[in-house]
Amino acid sequence: MIEIKAADVAKLRKMTGAGMMDCKKALQEAEGDYARAQDIIREKGKLVANKRADRTATEGVVVTHVAGTKGYMVCLACETDFVAKNADFGASAKAILDIAVKNDVPDMETLLATKNEAGTTVADLVTEKSGQTGEKVELPFYARVEAPYIAQYVHINNKLGTLIGFNKEVPYEVAHDVAMQATAMAPVSIDASDCPAEIIAKEREIGREQARLDGKPEAMLDKIAEGKVNKFLKENTLLNQSLVKNPKLTVGQFIKEADKEATVIAYKRFSLND
Asked: pTM for this one?
């Protein structure tokens, strides 16, 4: 069997991010051929990914970055908190985010097909991470927003993040508070006007059914349902929610106090726990 030196193993580990023993075994199997050894490690990643395809990846990290008028957010997910808290796993999420930023990637499909400087696609990087960790690893979320001013917020557990785009620059404290509000309260949309029609229809039907169960007259059901919808929109759209830090104000009013012309025009939020 060919002798594999520690320096060779270290070099392959730097190239692939795989464990030392995995790198040594791959180099031995490839008889010292680095390219072949990398292929072996990738194949191992595919094997692990296939074996664990039915597992649930509910742990992981959310990372964000704002570059001028563009904001990016990536979530890299795994099975256990132990792996999620590993520095290498966080670095992998950051590396994928860097690829998205560098290439100004517009959507998930494009991101998965985008290559790093070594010529490896993001999809393959995710698969390789499965091989390195022995867990199911996936990329469940990617978002890019564009606005004149963008705020970002990632919760302390790194599992929950938000990007908020404003139509103009606002004070940092205001933008930060709005981003924290959205992260904590999970609004379904920015305002009533951009709330998905299917959500409104569902809430309307729930309102009608509840009123019917309460014994309300049939002729009143539509009016009662609309009242329920309006209440839902007030509580679940960002600009109409009561501000957590000052419930006397809505988020929209809070922004207007800082700048009468300012408002939110873009919003993306993701949580591994939702």
From this structure: 0.81
